[in-house]
Amino acid sequence: MSRTSRPGLRTSVCTGALAVLAMAGCTSTAPQATGGDAGGGAAGGGPIAVDAGDTACDVSAADAPAGTITFAVSNTGSKVTEFYLYGVGDRIMGEVENIGPGLTRQLIVEVPDGGDYETACKPGMVGDGIRAPFAVTGTATRSVDQDTRLAEATAGYKRWVTSQIEAFLPKTQEFVDAVKAGDVEGAKALFPVSRTYWERIEPVAESFGDLDPKMDGREDDERDPGVEFTGFHRLEKDLWVDGLQPDSGAIGDQLMADARDLQTRVAALELTPVQLANGAKELLDEVATGKITGEEDRYSHTDLWDFKANVEGSQGAVAALRPVIDEKDPTLGPLLDERFEAVDDLLETYRVGDGYKLYTELTADDTRKMSDAVDALGEPISQVAGVVTA
Amino acid sequence: MTGLSRRHLFGWAGAGAALAGVGAVAGCSATAERPALSGAESVVPFRGRHQAGIVTPAQDRLHFVALDLTTDNRERVIGLLEKWTAAAERMVAGAETTPGGAVNRNPDAPPDDTGEALGLPASSLTLTFGVGAGLIEKLGLTDRMPPGLAPLPAFTGDQLDPATSGGDLCIQACSQDPQVAVHAVRNLVRMGFGTTAVRWSQLGFGRTSSTSTAQATPRNLFGFKDGTHNVKAEDGAELDRHVWVQPGDGPAWLDGGSYLVARRIRMHIEIWDRTSLSEQERIIGRDKGEGAPLGEQSEFDLADYTATGPTGEPVIPTIAHIRLASADNLGGVRILRRGYNFVDGSDGQGHLNAGLFFIAFLRDPHAQFVPMQSALANSDDLMEYIEHTGSAVFACPAGLGEGAYWGQSLLEG
């Protein structure tokens, strides 16, 4: 579907999932917890203990040798948390999610290259997390040919997409439950939140040409005779314009069924590096044509949630490809970092609580700034596919 | 030049033979002794003493763009200007922005060159670069601010829209083929994303001035010949006096350059069209058919502003456009006009959104344009049929020597 955009979180309590690729700019809001003082880390052996509280993230080692690194993450706080290891450009090396209070879970991550990484706990599973530097020393034995790097990139992105869908399902179920319970205000609050996960992986979702129109079609899309307007935007219209209808619950159930179908299909999906790169570009195209215009969320006006999610999705794909990009064109990655950061910084100025200003509250000057920032990012993003395949 | 060109460059002789007229000076360049060609195949030299696109015989088509800097990083700006200059030099010669840029590269990457000029000849493309006060301020170069970039005063009747006014820098693309001009602007704009953003742009479809004695005087959308007494390429010393910034006028980086004043002038042509011929001619001060000053026989006859008719009234009314704008009336002030007609679709009320995109090159906007426009704004009956909706002033540096890039004299001088 050429037009696709979606609303994002209203209460950004993204339960269920990682809140994804934090990005630059986050450091200002992320209290830096020291990573413990156990220099030398868990070198040869046992897991590196992580004490993940509500306000601190104590990692018992600040470094480890390249290879397989295991973290044992204990949630000592009161909120559900998650733990990440990030590479350059916030590439997710590995993450473990949904760690309830009192629980300990392990993150086993392959880090073949030495260098500077970051650990992060995300109490409440929101925001950029409590970060700390983490050094990986040496280089693990492996063949780092081009094919290997590309395979790692697609595998890494696949993991990320999978994690998004894992979060998408329960959050969408909450949304549908609220619709079925007649809780209009609750459903309205959940609408942009559940869509956030969808919007992040939009190119993947769109690759299933039959699901996308059902889940994300617009009222004025052309349909075959007998095919109804269903999915997110039908419920959006019910919630914001028409009031809940007798079949709203059934529409919600169908949305969930389609979401589960999506999950099944993604599990079998094989992506190529060029698809990743083009997906990163398409997400920005979505922003330019669907979000900055207010087209997608025409009833709820929650377009900036979708905007943010699209950008996060684009960054996710770029992050997965980053080692290849850095190898082929060392100037492109830093430029992308800079431009992503500029977009993020701009969007932050429109943040209201856990969400964003409504599209209808934006001025022409606001959308002009957004357009400039997306244009500035779109050009280097458009180079990624060529660089990766060069 | 390496790689594919859009089309091989024609030799001067071959091109010239195919063209009507046009023996004028190529404009200011070091190669000014060469004949200036205005046909489809001709190539206007990119480098020279002055920038092309000023006294170059006015081409028929315009795409003008004003951009704002989105960064204050000087190195980033220099990088873009170098890239622009290289691409501009190639495009002016009829080539793609980069060798093979339209189709010959990685199929997984978007082409460097957007391709719509592939196969089109150079078409006398000129690309003229100017900087506005905003660029100088943003890059912290205010000690090099030329005096001519001081803001213009408000003129009576101005209806300026900030969205079509100002700009940190400009590129004027003129060509005999509109697609060649649009291609040039589009590709330069694309290179600028992240460093520059388009503030406004304007297409023009018919020149309204002659900048060479070899050119016939064209008509504006009021149907009148316009710019008969323009400063022209052949005017020699007059150019130094009225068009080229001279040493001592201001900061040295602009010596040999020129100021560009742009005004988007909306014409209420439907109203004008209901005006009688005699009224139209009195307002302009010329007869419509020949273009002769009222009371004279042919276009280039000098206007006699002292002549009176049988009743003692001046033959050329005291508020006629040509009188108010004449050097006689303005203490000898002249300007080089290089404007274009435009029609930007319609205005939603059944009227053409049409007018004149006025461009003038001059040595000092405040000594030349301001008194002229002030006289017109206060007295000219034409003001009832037009309104100025956009305004900008840029400083266009001198031409480039070998290896130099646009704006280098300002940024590194």
List the helices and strands and how they pair.
The complex is a heterodimer of chains A (390) and B (413).
Chain A: E1 48-52, E2 57-59, E3 63-65, E4 67-75, E5 81-87, E6 91-99, E7 104-111, E8 113-121, E9 130-139, H1 146-180, H2 184-200, H3 202-206, H4 211-216, H5 232-242, H6 248-267, H7 273-291, H8 303-328, H9 332-348, E10 351-352, E11 355-356, H10 364-382, H11 384-389
Parallel strand pairs in A: 1-4, 3-9
Antiparallel strand pairs in A: 1-2, 4-7, 5-6, 5-8, 8-9, 10-11
Helix pairs in contact in A: 1-2, 1-6, 1-8, 2-5, 2-8, 5-6, 7-8, 7-10, 8-9, 9-10
Chain B: H1 12-17, E1 61-69, H2 74-92, E2 126-131, H3 133-138, E3 169-175, H4 178-192, E4 196-204, E5 206-207, H5 237-242, E6 258-267, H6 269-272, H7 277-284, H8 321-324, E7 336-337, E8 340-346, E9 352-362, H9 369-379, E10 386-396, H10 408-412
Antiparallel strand pairs in B: 1-3, 1-4, 2-3, 5-8, 6-9, 6-10, 7-9, 8-9
Helix pairs in contact in B: 2-4
Low-confidence stretches of chain B: 1-5, 7-37
Secondary-structure element string of chain B: HEHEHEHEEHEHHHEEEHEH
Provide the gyration radius of chain A in Å. 21 Å
CATH superfamily of one domain in chain A: Cupredoxins -  blue copper proteins
The biggest beta sheet of chain B reads: 6 strands, antiparallel
CATH topology of one domain in chain A: Immunoglobulin-like
Give helix % range of chain B: 10-25%
Low-pLDDT runs of 5+ residues of chain A are 1-44
The rounded Rg of chain B comes to 21 Å
Structural class of chain A: alpha+beta
Structure annotation, total helices of chain B: 10
Number of domains of chain B: 1
Largest inter-chain contact set: A-B, 19 and 11 residues
Number of E strands of chain B: 10
